[in-house]
Amino acid sequence: MQGIGGSGLYSLTFIIFPEISTPEMSQVIGAAAGAVAMAGILGPVLGGVITHYTTWRWIFWINGPIGIIPLIVFIIAWPKPHQIIHAPRRSWKQLDLIGAVLVIAASVCVVFAFQQGGIMPDSWNKPIFIVPLVIGCLCYVLLFCWEVAVAKYWAGSFATMFPLHLIKHRVYMGYVLVTLIGGFPYFMFIYTLPLRLQVVNENSQLVAGLALLPMVGAVAVFSSAAAIINTKKNLIFETLLTGALFSVLWTALLSTLKNVPWIEGKMYGFQVFIGIGFGLMVSTTSLGGGLERELKDTTVAQGIIAQVRVLGGSIGIAATTAIMGTTLRRDLAKYPHLAGTEGQAERVEVVNADAFRQSMQVCAAITGVGVLATFLVWRKERIGYTERRRQQMENAQKLRRQEGEVEKVGKV
Predict the structure, then answer these.
(1) Its principal location (predicted)?
(2) Band of residue 316 on the pLDDT scale cut at 50, 70, 90
(3) Run of H or E including 348
(4) What CA–CA distance (Å, rounded) separates 28 from 227?
(5) Domain 2-56+166-411's class?
């Protein structure tokens, strides 16, 4: 239930913002992206504070008031009936249930497979890993085949989950790929650093959570800055490439942290690079993806970008779980005589530090691929955001006129 509610809130934010803002207010997308990124960081921070002073159950007690306040504001700010421009509505029959089931099944099965591989390191060649991974990959293939079939035989009959014309769109798919890759190291880091600080550096949950704060300011500043810059001039490719390069930089630098009982000061400096890299990427991918679609594809195009960011993060967390589990069991198996002793606790610290280093090295390799993926969004001829938004509105009006004419002919 939490996943269903959270996914709706997460994706609908990026769908509603472009609809209620004028072309000159595109920086709100950067603000929204920055808010989402900061929320991802503040979650572990507040979690550390809460569990330090109370119990983990209070996390769920405070979720209610936190959710009710913005809900009240949302209801108050919602436009009155006379202020709403009524757009054509789709019927429930056009809901792409097959596509939705395939997307959910594919995502869940792939993530589940890698999580099981991490929990049980001897399961890589067993059905519990192989079967869900194969099913997940097969669902992705079936999803593509389904979208091809809909485009060929039932065009316009379904509001597809992943329209074929978007799949064929090189630049848009570039944004999707960069978003997927960008979510991998970001969520992995948010998951692994507090764990490392507690196990290796023997800090409390409070300190482990507060240690993430340097990222918050950097993400807020650079996500907003990216939106403002690209509103005035289309420098989306350059912004995205810069963010991708900073992502490679911070993952490589974090792999140099040593296994020492104290927190190295340079770790806080490296987090600023994280904020720069992810901040530039998170708002730019949303902004760029919005430029490449037509208004009729707003919901699905923004929803895809929101979904793949979380999917990339889920795969990242699953990967680090696999690295941690495999490294821990392999190392401790070499020292059975240390079971239950202080020496075993010391080995756990060493293994956690080594697993963190390996995770960051994997992230560095993945983000290197992300740098190459940014070249998919390159355009020789570019237009500004404001001009493109007006162009999209004109195209939408033309489409509505054409649909109206077709409907009149059908009635005759």
Answers:
(1) membrane
(2) confident
(3) helix 342-373
(4) 8
(5) mainly alpha
| Inter-residue contact 197 to 353 (CB < 8 Å) | no
**Whole-angstrom Cα distance, residue 172 to residue 180?**
13
Compute and round to an integer the Cα radius of gyration of the chain: 23
Mean pLDDT of the chain: 80
For 405, the token pair is 């004419």
191 neighbors 320 (Cβ within 8 angstroms) = yes
Q: Is 224 exposed, middle or buried (0-12, 13-18, 19+ CB in 10 A)?
A: buried
Kindly state the tokens that stand for 5: 């509610």
Q: Per-residue b/e over 332-353, b at no fewer than 16 CB within 10 Å?
A: eeeeeeeeeeeeeeebbbebbb
Who's near 122: CB < 8 A, 6+ residues apart?
A: none
Predicted local distance difference test score (pLDDT) of residue 26? 60
The rounded distance, in Å, linking the Cα atoms of 15 and 24 is 17
Amino acid at 233: K
Rounded percentage of the chain residues whose pLDDT exceeds 90:
14
What is the tally of helices (H) and strands (E) in the chain?
A: 14, 0
Taken in order 255, 258, 262, 266, is the CA torsion positive or negative?
negative
**Is the pTM here over 0.90, yes or no?**
no
pLDDT at 24: 62
Kindly tell me the sign of the dihedral angle through the C-alpha atoms of 272, 275, 281, 287: negative
Q: How many CB atoms lie within 10 A of CB 394?
A: 11
Q: What angle do CA 401, 403, 407 make, to 5 degrees?
A: 115
pLDDT at position 337: 65
Does the pLDDT of residue 346 top 80, yes or no?
A: no
* Torsion sign, CA atoms 166, 168, 173, 174: negative
Residue 376 near residue 173 (C-beta atoms within 8 A):
yes
* Owner of token pair 């040593």: 258
Segment 128-154 mean pLDDT: 90
What are φ and ψ of residue 95, in 5° steps? -65, 130
